[in-house]
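Dear H.,

Thanks for agreeing to be a second pair of eyes. The structure we're designing against is below in token form, covering all 575 positions.
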């Protein structure tokens, strides 16, 4: 243990604690910009400078471990002055188009400028960074706003195991870029958008499809249908000042209706259908000697990851399309037929916590009879912007339901948005089907939680124990794939992999939480709570018991994995 003084107060902390962490324990706030807890602790931005009595130079609190007897000053005149100078230097090389920046009011640089009372920027002159890379379907990278904090680089490397962003150049010409000045579209980027939600400023943002949605809504010849992913309802409220973890399903449905969508449907319906298809697919593989372990195929970041880095395991992927695409494909076939709508006159819009979904919707493997399953995908953040632009008073909206049939879903579908959720949903159905009864104990705790890689054995029937692995976040996916390659997972039958850490609740399209707030809260767990609460409160919590899913099979699909179901709901990736 180490005992030292901070702003005159004595404090004892475990050895190895940094000044920044120790200060936090005493409720003393030290400003940061490049710091990202556990991920990017590099002392680069010099915002967290503190004075240590007797030492000549100021020190970066985020990387300076405390020592016995030191006296730290976090707010001395010297510290205040240095931080202000450093901040105005950063600002002098920053494209300060704050009024039109997508991160305005949610920008860590803007907030710091205000908090540290920086009112003028004495240094004027040349600016570095001129590239705006908007070739990716998902991510726009704007160097004119980059402050070289390297948070994106660290997340891409360490958390996602992808590593397509790196520092290039020296001094004034330093940039964080993909190799050889290429576009993100030309390198092994998996479109997950983790760089976006960890960028403190507007240097990374999603490719906006908001105007495409307005255009569709304003076209009288189109039937415009929206579907919302499980995780959106766990976070949309945050954009309107609501507490993290507070579900907002009712207001979300109401807002979508006010925006003018002809029908407000739920990706959760498609998630229930996915469980039927994927559950039976797994059974088929188990019984007929198919490729095992079967790996889930609903996270488009993960799909791109396997295609790019481990193509030899593509045959292990479930052939199921993602719930987003199952919903879209069914809308353009079954629903269109039922309602006499030409699928060409239908526009399916998905609201997703994900930027990779923008990539997924335009993939040629994901169309039926010449119609793309989904036409436009927007993020949770884009939906919030649309609601604000339409001057809808979100807080005053009543709670409304989704439209019936394609809006009907179960608790099993809701938890898809959290890591382990797809696995749990599948097991709930498999266990009932194989045991031929309605099993009551359905909270499979072993597959829940934010641990990076989970292994469990689930007793599905007295004679069938299924070995499962669940992982989330690219770096963990890489570990699992390496284990698979080494033959260490030969006894495993089913693997759930999600591209983003925590699963979709922490997707690259979700509301952005500052690094400071992330020191105190685990977003992944908080938002997952909203989903598990909604699951627990749902009358029906198993996909195969969704009456609308039962009806869909009766009147259209015939049975899980039928020829028709295959044509509409399954695909193969071949890269
Ligand atoms: Fe997800 Fe999904 S759960 S990928 O994590 O499976 O994005 O929320 O919509 O499609 O349902 C994201 C979230 C989805 C899909 C579903 C799956």
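And this is the sequence the design step returned. I haven't edited it by hand at all.
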């Amino acid at each position: 243990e180490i005992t030292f003084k901070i702003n005159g107060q004595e404090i004892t902390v475990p050895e190895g604690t940094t000044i920044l962490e120790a200060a936090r324990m005493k409720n003393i706030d030290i400003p940061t910009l490049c710091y990202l807890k556990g991920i990017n602790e590099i002392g680069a931005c010099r915002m967290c400078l503190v004075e240590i009595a007797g030492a000549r130079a100021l020190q970066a609190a985020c990387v300076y471990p405390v020592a016995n007897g030191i006296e730290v000053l976090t707010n001395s005149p010297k510290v205040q002055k240095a931080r202000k100078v450093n901040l105005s230097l950063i600002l002098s090389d920053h494209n300060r188009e704050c009024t039109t920046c997508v991160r305005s009011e949610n920008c860590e640089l803007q907030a710091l400028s205000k908090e540290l009372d920086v009112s003028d920027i004495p240094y004027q002159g040349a600016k570095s960074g001129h590239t705006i890379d908007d070739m990716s379907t998902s991510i726009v990278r704007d160097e004119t706003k980059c402050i070289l904090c390297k948070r994106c680089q660290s997340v891409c490397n360490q958390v996602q195991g992808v590593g397509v962003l790196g520092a290039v150049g020296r001094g004034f010409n330093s940039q964080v870029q993909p190799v050889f000045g290429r576009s993100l579209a030309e390198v092994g980027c998996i479109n997950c958008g983790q760089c976006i939600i960890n960028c403190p400023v507007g240097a990374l943002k999603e490719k906006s499809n908001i105007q495409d949605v307005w255009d569709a809504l304003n076209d009288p010849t189109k039937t415009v249908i929206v579907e919302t992913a499980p995780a959106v309802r766990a976070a949309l409220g945050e954009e309107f000042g609501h507490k993290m973890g507070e579900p907002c399903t009712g207001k979300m449905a109401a807002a979508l209706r006010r925006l003018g969508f002809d029908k407000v449907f739920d990706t959760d319906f498609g998630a229930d259908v996915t469980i039927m298809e994927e559950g039976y697919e797994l059974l088929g593989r188990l019984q007929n000697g198919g490729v095992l372990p079967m790996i889930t195929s609903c996270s488009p970041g993960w799909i791109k990851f396997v295609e790019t880095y481990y193509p030899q395991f593509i045959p292990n992927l479930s052939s199921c399309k993602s719930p987003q695409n199952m919903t879209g494909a069914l809308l353009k076939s079954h629903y269109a037929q039922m309602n006499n709508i030409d699928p060409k006159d239908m526009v399916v819009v998905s609201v997703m916590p994900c930027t990779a979904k923008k990539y997924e919707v335009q993939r040629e493997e994901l169309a039926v009879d010449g119609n793309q399953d989904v036409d436009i995908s927007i993020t949770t953040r884009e939906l919030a912007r649309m609601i604000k632009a339409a001057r809808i008073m979100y807080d005053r909206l009543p709670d409304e339901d989704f439209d019936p049939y394609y809006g009907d879903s179960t608790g099993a579908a809701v938890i898809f948005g959290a890591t382990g959720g797809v696995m749990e949903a599948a097991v709930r159905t498999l266990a009932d089907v194989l045991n031929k009864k309605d099993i009551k104990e359905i909270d499979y705790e072993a597959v829940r939680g934010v641990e990076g890689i989970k292994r469990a054995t689930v007793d599905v029937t007295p004679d069938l124990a299924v070995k499962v692995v669940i992982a989330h976040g690219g770096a963990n996916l890489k570990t699992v794939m390496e284990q698979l390659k080494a033959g260490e997972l030969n006894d495993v039958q089913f693997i759930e992999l999600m591209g983003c850490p925590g699963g979709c609740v922490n997707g690259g399209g979700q509301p952005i939480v500052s690094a400071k707030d992330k020191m105190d809260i685990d977003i992944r767990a908080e938002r997952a709570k909203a989903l598990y609460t909604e699951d627990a409160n749902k009358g029906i919590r198993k996909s195969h018991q969704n009456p609308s899913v039962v009806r869909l099979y009766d009147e259209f699909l015939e049975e899980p994995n039928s020829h028709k179901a295959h044509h509409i709901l399954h695909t193969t990736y071949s890269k």
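Two observations from my side: DSSP finds 19 helices and 20 strands in the chain. The radius of gyration is 25 Å.

Warmly,
E.
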